[in-house]
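Provenance

Sequences were taken from public entries as deposited. Structures were produced by running a predictor on each sequence independently, with no templates supplied. The record for T-complex protein 1 subunit delta from Eucalyptus globulus is shown for reference.
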Amino acid sequence: MAAPAISLPAAYSSKTESYVDNKRKEDIRQANIVAARTVADAVRTSLGPKGMDKMISTASGEVIITNDGATILNKMEVLQPAAKMFVELSKSQDAAAGDGTTTVVVIAGALLKQCLSLLSAGIHPTVISDSLHKAAVKAVDILTAMAVPVELSDRESLVKSASTSLNSKVVSQYSTLLAPLAVDAVLSVVDPLKPDLVDLRDIKIVKKLGGTVDDTELIKGLVFDKKVSHAAGGPTRIENAKIAVIQFQISPPKTDIEQSIVVSDYSQMDRILKEERNYILGMIKKIKATGCNVLLIQKSILRDAVTDLSLHYLAKAKILVVKDVERDEIEFITKTLNCLPIANIEHFRVEKLGYADLVEESSLGEGKIVKITGIKDMGRTTTVLVRGSNQLVIDEAERSLHDALCVVRCLVNKRFLIAGGGAPEIELSRQLGAWAKVLHGMEGYCIRSVAEALEVIPYTLAENAGLNPIAIVTELRNRHAQGEINAGINVRKGQITNILEENVVQPLLVSTSAISLATECVRMILKIDDIVTVR
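Predicted structure for T-complex protein 1 subunit delta:
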């Protein structure tokens, strides 16, 4: 007699217990990785000194030509959430180091490619994530051991580092001018009391159309990209200037609330005009009494900062006027002039003024600028006047100069230099590969994949320079195995040389930041197994 069939509840069924649908999780993870890698591939061709430039056309019709990774990704309209993380990754690198914005995305893309093959081999995402973290920590240690210390007094090394950053830009032919300019600008704003901190907001970049990038100059003082308000024939040049930065209007006051004043006869109108004249004249007398002869007037949104009548009286008082100074420039101006902004005519005092040897208006290209030089007790700020033949060149020169300033800032924060030209990446790949052989199990397998992923930088540098990437990377591995840790790709000569001797150097902070941020972003993408849309 057959044994009766016993039907167990679903809860006790081992089959139901162990069955989990992993297909959707794998699909989501794969979709995220593919989307993020597409973003990385988009900027990969612009890596290195021989990298290609991108022409970006915005919806408003604006055209930008650049090969700066952060700018390209910032302007791209990315919709997929994981791909957006790569755009944020590039912004993070820009904030942390200022340079290496393309490198960080290319490394992250290569790591994701390796992760895809590790996932298909059945390795759990958490194991891969932990291995990536260990590899990143080890990589930072290896890079630090390779680094060469540098002193801020060694101006030549700082210039070399800034030149390396500029060599991969559209304006690379002007690197001999822009690199020393960037170094001098940063060193002039370093505070001896806080030698490790540099605030790039203390360096103002003023763009002026006309001339070429060769005409770019560093000005110890202030520059305004506007002309002097001399509608009433006021002065355009003042020596031994006493400068006031004012945040009030030299114009007749308005009523506080919306209301209309009805004037019924001419005598009332004359009285209003007479009161207006007396009001403005009273203000200008108070200004003149302090000896002030230059006025910088903040832009006003409530009413006109100055009227034709007030300009007429100011011209008679021989006071030079620059109006429509932006609100966000006030802090920089007052810091430079070592003066205080004046918010009310009642607070207009001599001790709030700034002093300079010369304030003058000069013609530049098609327009005019106002220069303030010879400032007494000048704050730790500086101004760079960028010139160019068209707006595209000026904008790219400004972006390139910003990267060069960031590179010098990195060296002030962390005073170590490292070789460029793919040398640190191939050395990392070699040492991580050797370390992976010592480790056991899945961890060693994952770290070997990280080592392979890092070879993408020298491979891409060679590919973008039109060299044979496989032959170059193989030769590079061989040279590093023989102990030449500074051997890198010299794209100008098309061969492998000691890259430190070729003066191709970069700050340690750029490389360590790129590795740390790339692995952090990849680990986050790996851990995502579902996308929930909330409407």
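The two ends are 61 Å apart (CA to CA).
Confidence is low (pLDDT under 50) at residues 5-16.
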